[in-house]
Specification:
Length: about 130
């Protein structure tokens, strides 16, 4: 069978099928990437809300300690311990987030520290904010 006996319609059909497969895969990857990006942002928002709640509870604890007669030195020691624990928590959370993120999407995680994560989220929120 010679090449010129194969109808050109078959080539067009196969070319269209291949183009469709490649195009649909690219669109699918784009949707997954958008979903992963939104997931990262929503997770960071949740973590920041948790951080704010913990900071508020810590302040309430210090106020209660002061009202119950704890010494300033004792309160300062507790504040230092709390700050060290809180910083360790932030480091662990970011490390765990990065380590459990799917390998094929790790390139979307653009931060390695808590401060980098907050900066990225802040920029993202400014981009999507209705008031500029």
């Amino acid at each position: 069978m010679e090449l010129n006996t194969i109808p050109t319609e078959l080539f067009w059909f196969l070319g269209g099928a291949i183009f469709h497969k490649i195009g649909s895969n690219l669109l699918g990857y784009g949707k997954v990437a958008n979903f992963a990006h939104d997931t990262i942002n929503q997770t960071l928002k949740l973590l920041i809300l948790i951080m704010e709640d913990v900071a508020f509870m810590r302040e309430m604890k210090y106020l209660h300690m002061q009202q119950t007669g704890a010494s300033e030195e004792s309160i300062e020691n507790i504040k230092q311990i709390d700050e060290n624990m809180f910083n360790a928590w932030k480091t662990i959370v970011i490390h765990k987030f990065i380590s459990v993120y799917p390998n094929n999407l790790k390139g979307l995680v653009k931060f390695r520290t808590w401060n980098e994560a907050v900066n990225i989220l802040t920029k993202e929120m400014k981009k999507t904010s209705p008031r500029k």
